[in-house]
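Protein modeling request. Please complete all fields; requests missing the sequence field cannot be processed.
Requester role: graduate student
Desired output: 3D structure, token encoding
Chains: 1
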Amino acid sequence: MAGWQEALERQARTRAKAGLTRTLRSRPAGDAVVDLAGNDYLGLAVHPEVIAASVRALRAYGLGATGSRLVRGSTDAHTALETELADWLGAEQSLVYSSGYLANLGAVRALAGPGTLLVSDRYNHASLIEAARARVRRSSSPRTPTRPRSRRSFMPTPAAPRCSSPSRCSPSTATSRPWPSCTR
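Delivered output (184 residues):
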């Protein structure tokens, strides 16, 4: 087994020992459970009016986006929705994203200009953390994102250690640091 595979196996065993292993659980069609942990907490995915509107959209546009919105995936339904949202919000325009993740990436990119200080921690959603990192990468004066050592301390963490022997390095299991630590 290759070194990287062994490292993954060690990480998997460590997660399992700590009770952090997650497994997929299939749900049957027509499941009556109220979903408070997923993205359908309002139950709209099974609402009769939403299903009827989806059927109408399938008949009119077919299945799938057929491409990115910029290239070929934008429809008159998108335009109508964005116009109605803008009117409802009293805004000049609106833009609908296909996921909350993409919406967060787009919002941070649009709102955080050069010189904007972005403060984030590990409890933010991954989309906000990635948006902040992307903003730093394209900044004219990039700064390395830092994270607090604990919830009580907002001191920056030290830079990731460099290992002189990558073959002996593995992701740290003793700390919550995201970078590899040397196991010499």
